[in-house]
Amino acid sequence: MRFRTWIYSAVLYPLAALSLGAESKPIPAIPHLEQRGNTTQLIVDGKPFLILGGELYNNSATSLDYMQPIWPRLTAMHLNTVLAAVSWAMLERSEGQFDYTLLDGLIRDARAHHLRLVLLWFGSWKNSWSSYIPDWVKRDFARFPRAQLGNGSGTERLTAFSEANRDADARAFAAFMRRIREVDGDAHTVIMVQVENEVGMIPDARDHSPAANAAYGQPVPGELMDYLREHKDALVPELRAKWQAAGFGTSGNWEAVFGPGLETEDLFMAWHYARYIGKVTEAGKAQYNLPMFANAALIRPSYAPGQYNSGGPLAHSMDIWKAAAPQLDFLAPDIYFEFKKWCGEYDRPETRCLFRRQPAAFQARRTSSMPSGGTARSGFRRSA
What we know:
15 strands, globular
């Protein structure tokens, strides 16, 4: 089994880490975030919790039998938390019929090995593609439309400009969170949830489906314009510079407000991805209000929008995501390169971020069974 290891520094001081033996005691509250000074801490069973985490590969948790020899290896590494994916495709094989066998078993087996879980919801998108949606969604192009490229060709990804797509995902995610509450609402094995995975458009900077084209020509949403005006002097520099270069306009379509270009298309997609994911998150939180986040695939040097996942929760569009998806508790850049640079990019006022990484040396030296390299660190902070 191959997996990635991180240390998630989710508290201000490591000595505050929680012993998992406290699960039998009265539980004051579900896992949640608390701001203490300039730091946001993850609180589990009433105490700050330091995550020492390892992430499974995408499909490792799709077989409970496959995982049986893996759990002892994880505990032998002195981890206290495992990141594991649960897919919409396996949860809702038939529309409206939910199979909780894998979810229940994953929670049960993690608890038996005194491990916490951060579950990754592979719903509408995984690494920009819709490869983990159920077959009944994949087959119905009319009901569940896809994103299109500028040359008119289709893609294997759901469009963010469809209420049918969003609502189907939201219903499944709500069922997923409701089940977690039912089987784990007291034990708190599951401590956080990631919503979707590394969303964004490639190889074009934006969706060119009919609904997307119509939205691109419409006025920038009033909610976003209100946010921009209220936070004008505190916007991330890249977004403010883009708006300023177009004259700080307060009305008009996307190109009127931000100017033409791929960067504007990126901001346009950021708003619509964030709105979609915000609604999915809202449906889940209504069932069980665990901390929830969205992660980002970062920009390789010299890449333009469309070469990277355009519209994802990137540092330059954090304000767009904050305005469009207030339901999310924080953002999480997936850092595989230039760790210090990306920590600085995401270190912005009034922004919570979870930093996680896999160092290149560790990635290169891992084996098919157990990693032979070191661990990586990440931080959970809120800037003042």
